[in-house]
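Per reviewer request, we include the raw input and output of the structure prediction for the construct analysed in the revised manuscript.
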Amino acid sequence: MISKRIIPCLDVRAGKLTKGIKFKGNVDIGDPVEAARQYYEQGADEIVFYDITASSDKRDIMIEVVRRVAETIFIPFSVGGGIRNLEDMRKVIGAGAEKISVNSAAVENPQIITQGAKAFGSQCVVLGMDVKKVEQSKKTPSSYEIVVEGGRVYTGLDALWWAKEAQNLGAGEICLNSIDADGTQDGYELNLTRLISESVKIPVIASGGAGKPEHLAEVLTAGKADAALIASMVHYKTYTIAGIKHFLAERGIKVRNIW
């Protein structure tokens, strides 16, 4: 059995670690570089860094913050936000990231996935999907729609179709975020996660809604996710990554780096 990964998510706005609920009401809560160091020392398997306003502000990602985080940790590091072309990808990889996450830019130009996969390998290209539950229709038969620009713009794209399309284009992984569950700490969107996980062959990271270790156990088993993204439950020091891993291991879920 492949080990399940636990991945803290650093949402960054104006160089500060920030957290909101359902993409709204963000408050600054600390220094992303210091948070990355703490999570690395606690046993995180990877770190995800999102510059959450880069796309909506039409600006470049804060590459200096990326570089400082990369110098602080020695585990895989994925970066997203404001990446619009191959040159942006190259800058992020050059600053020390192992993976590039594309979201809004991939919807606008799907070929960026293929270009990135050819240049750096599929394992380096992560498709970020921000998803909202909607009424079932011809346009969205799965009842889930892709939303971009930090949750501001509905695309009309069906989430299940887009996940399969991204896999065909060369994405090596999907980070699947439920806007409805984001920041609520009420649990992941299990139906959405299971739907996507069972429909693609590439790894799926579940995101949005983690509030207690039981939620991770649910999404990694019933939700069929390969990894779980966490934020509030560690940002506010309610739990540690080591504590979460011990909880999962005691329930028979294989995880890495327990000490």
